[in-house]
Amino acid sequence: MKKSIGAKSLAYPTPAWVVGSYDMFGNANVMTAAWGGICCSEPPCISVSMRKATYTYANIMEKEAFTINIPSEKYVKETDYFGMASGKDVDKFEKTGLTAVKSDLVYAPYIEEFPIVLECKLVHSFELGLHTQFIGEIIDIKADESVLDENGNPAIRKIKPIIYSPERNYYGVGELLGKAFSIGMEK
């Protein structure tokens, strides 16, 4: 029997993404966000939600662009730091030693050391309550060649993305369970 635990913001898993933006002075800034996912296939779009109180919120509203940087497990400390410090108070790139790269397609920076970057232009924003959901059209995806498979697509086992758990923990990707749109045919 299941036990009711009430209405909470719990879903498993959630991403540990780092959202890149430029502030009003043109300074590169990043913040970690877990409330997000793919939200449309055509055009390809992604959603990410954040509170108005974040520095990144104002940056995205002003510049109408952002990047989604997908860190590998080796950058878990930097990813956590990006979610604790504010770009109002500190240069997060200087503090972590990571490299901000200016996107050539949208007005937002991305992190050179992270294996996957989605460059997005803002197409919608929705006030949901405490959070605002930003919908970005994916203009391009940049991937390190080292994380691509034989077909030129990013491979999750090579990326080693960080997964965030709402009980405030980070995890890596587990074992392969089966091929999607195939394993279910065995029933």
TrEMBL record:
Residues 9-164 form the Flavin reductase like domain. Its EC number is 1.5.1.-. It comes from the Archaea. Keywords: Flavoprotein, Oxidoreductase. One of its GO terms (molecular function) is oxidoreductase activity. Pfam families: Flavin_Reduct. Its cofactor is FMN. Belongs to the flavoredoxin family. This is Flavin reductase family protein.
